[in-house]
Description:
Elements lengths: L1 E3 L5 E7 L3 E6 L10 H7 L3 E6 L16 H14 L5 E6 L1 H12 L3 E7 L9 H13 L5 H11 L2 H5 L4 H8 L14 E6 L7 H10 L3 E6 L6 H4 L1 H13 L1
Parallel strand pairs: 3-4, 3-5, 5-6, 6-7, 7-8
Antiparallel strand pairs: 1-2, 2-4
Helix pairs in contact: 1-10, 2-3, 4-5
Amino acid sequence: MTIKLDNGTSINYEVYGTGKRLLILHGWGENIRTFDSVTTVLSRNFQLIIIDLPGFGQSSALPHPFTLDDYTSTVEKFLTALEINEVFILGHSFGGAIAVKLAIFSNKVKRLILEDSSGIRNKSLSIKFKIYVYKTLKLILSEKYREKLRRILGSSDYRSAGVLRSTLIKVVSEDLQSVVSKISIPTLLIWGRNDKETPMEQARIMKNEIKDSTLHIIEGVGHFPHLEKPEEFIKAVSEFLKD
């Protein structure tokens, strides 16, 4: 299904099951289909609403580079357009960062699930070194070679972002560590023990900052617990939302 919002954005979405509503937000470079492994079981107890975020899947392209606030506003408009006033939200990775902002600024969100969420931008030594190299060399390189350097030093997401590269830069430049403490609703953090993209350290920061939060660690998996251990993921989500 597709709905056109009052800001001109068209959102592709699917709805499964009945019951209390659970909005699912996918990660960067993903789409609705990434949650196929868990929708059948979860939809037995909840009404799942899964969307393609703008710029991904079958939703419309971005009219301009988006910030996290732009994405948050768009998802809020989507909920309003569907006349949804109460909803649980599950956000994975990049979708988790959007979910954090929604939980803070929208009174529609009643419970929050963050799966290996992005948003905490503490930089490792290797990342700090790459930034130092780039800032040093860009002073003496032409734009042509600066772009080549960005491709070499940038993450896999940066290299594959294409027309969304400016959006990615805006999104990853925002650190949510200073605002996650404003989340006041019950929150479940689901994290893969071996996640290299959003390491366990970031989960612990969120756990410490969000007052009413629980951390569920899934052993032996990385950044995609819903794909790697769907049964344990489903159990953790279901028990939290039924509680």
